[in-house]
Write a structure and sequence with these properties.
The structure holds 2 protein chains of 2 kinds. By secondary structure, chain A is mainly alpha-helical. Chain A is built from 10 helices and no strands. Chain A has one domain (3-223): MetI-like fold (Orthogonal Bundle). In chain B, helix 3 (102-114) crosses helix 4 and helix 4 (118-131) crosses helix 5.
């Protein structure tokens, strides 16, 4: 068999296309669900870490440190295979969302912290001097500026998260990678794997490009 | 907020002490400000005048003593935002919100703090921008405005809350010299409306023109508290204030000034 028939076998790709697209749909659903959860959780974490009462701060710091240190694959296996022993059963989908969100929220919290700390102290003072409540100060003044600053790194976190959804195939999730592996076994041909790799690139490459151009634009704006 | 007794000063600072770690920034400050008074706080850099005005709305914490504004004690808690709503502040670095237009900068506090509608707040904001001569710039972002224009927007923003007191923390120190005048003119116009003001400034001729009370500070203490005619006219009573005025006249670097100012012959 030639190189083309081995890796780019159109017949095999054609037959497995439906399965791959099913997998892609699941990968995107899993990625987006985890993304929303982890950014929401990250925001709560960073506010608790920076402005909560002491016990909350300590808990937030511990949470952030632990989930940045633990390997995602280990956490995923723990959630899916160990938690049932204490009666907590997740479906593969929610096990994957939980593990991905725990880790990504810790990274998101650190990323948001950098953004909040980069907002000039005078902005906080101006809002306080006008009589803003803490909530209004954060919502109207601080977070809009902080989050704009961290668009590139948080998009980076989103990209990692979507890439890491591939780990969900370990817990029997029929995501893009799992579908490709199954098709590869079925047709005894690796072309579906190449197809899956291309699909990953198609959704992630533009995001990578966008991050770079936003970074460029922010650098230019800052240098002005 | 009109529950103050006729005899009671509008701002009452009693035995105020402020420390930065071991360093005492304010010593035994006692100051009573009546409604409508305009105080110029002057003195060398690091004398504590900015710190003092920043204590009044609790942007700086203090360790001992009390401050009352309109009979309400200034401290952390539920009443703090009430006090802050009545005490407007204009900062050295303007501190406009960079992600909002000039109009929204001025309109947002009345909406969020006073609970009025956006429509009404923007109408009022436009009138205020008109008053500081910037109505044609209402839809620009702060980054599109000059320093002087930004500071005028900041003054409009403070006025939008219709505060009882206005604190100015070196409002012209961050400006290019050619923009100082336009900002001082606006402050002077505000002063004529009868609002109570505390102005920290290095602009001596302006202090003389606009204030009716001069507070001279040094090393965290109030050294003199005199009418401007006396302070700038026959000269300050204390040696220290005289030394300061003389060094200002000579553009002495110790006074924290970069250029000599005509003071006495103003």
């Amino acid at each position: 068999m030639g190189l083309m028939e081995t890796f780019f076998n159109l017949d095999v790709l054609h037959s497995s296309a439906l399965a791959l697209l099913e997998g892609l749909k699941l990968t995107i659903t899993l990625g987006l669900t985890s993304l929303v959860t982890s950014f929401a959780a990250g925001l709560i974490l960073v506010l608790g870490r920076l402005y909560g009462p002491m016990p909350i701060r300590v808990i937030a710091i511990a949470f952030i440190d632990i989930f940045r240190a633990i390997p995602l694959l280990v956490l995923l296996v723990l959630v899916y295979y160990a938690l049932p022993f204490v009666g907590i059963n997740f479906s593969p989908f929610w096990a994957a969302v939980t593990a991905l969100s725990l880790v990504a929220s810790a990274y998101a919290a650190e990323c948001f912290r950098a953004g909040i700390e980069a907002v000039a102290i005078g902005q906080f003072e101006a809002a306080k001097a006008l009589g803003f409540s803490w909530t209004d100060m954060m919502k109207d003044v601080v977070l809009p500026q902080a989050l704009r600053l961290v668009i590139p790194p948080s998009t980076g976190i989103g990209i990692s998260l979507i890439k890491d959804t591939a780990l969900a195939s370990v817990v029997a999730m029929p995501d893009l990678l799992k579908q490709a592996l199954q098709a590869q076994a079925f047709y005894a041909n690796p072309s579906p794997l190449i197809g899956a790799a291309l699909l990953y690139l198609i959704i992630l490459l533009p995001l990578v490009r966008i991050v770079s151009s936003i970074e460029e634009r922010q650098k230019r704006a800052a240098g002005r | 907020m009109t529950h103050q007794k006729a005899t009671q000063p509008f701002i009452k600072i009693t035995d105020l002490q402020k420390f930065y770690g071991q360093f005492q920034a304010l010593h035994d400050i006692n100051l009573a400000v009546e409604k409508g008074q305009i105080l110029a706080l002057i003195g060398p850099s690091g004398s504590g005048k900015s710190t003092l005005v920043r204590c009044i709305n609790l942007l700086e914490q203090f360790q001992a003593g009390t401050i009352e504004v309109d009979g309400i004690e200034v401290k952390e808690g539920r009443n703090l935002n009430k006090v802050r709503a009545e005490v407007g502040m204009v900062f050295q670095q303007f501190n406009l919100f960079p992600h909002m237009t000039a109009l929204k900068n001025v309109a947002i506090a009345p909406v969020r703090v006073r609970g009025i509608s956006w429509e009404e707040a923007e109408k009022k904001a436009l009138a205020l921008l008109e008053r500081v001569g910037l109505s044609q710039h209402a839809h620009k972002r702060p980054s599109q405005l000059s320093g002087g224009q930004q500071q005028r927007v900041a003054i409009a923003r403070a006025l939008a809350m219709e505060p009882e007191v206005l604190l100015f923390d070196e409002p012209t120190s961050a400006l290019d010299p050619e923009m100082v005048g336009e900002v001082l003119d606006v402050i002077q116009k505000v002063a004529e409306t009868g609002v109570t003001m505390l102005i920290v400034t290095h602009e001596m001729s302006f202090a003389r023109r606009v204030s009716n009370r001069v507070i001279f500070m040094e090393q965290g203490r109030i050294i003199e508290d005199t009418p401007p005619e006396e302070f700038f006219g026959c000269g300050p009573k204390t040696d220290r204030a005289q030394l300061f005025i003389r060094s200002v006249l000579q553009g002495h670097p110790d006074a924290g000034l970069t250029a000599p100012l005509q003071v006495l012959e103003d």
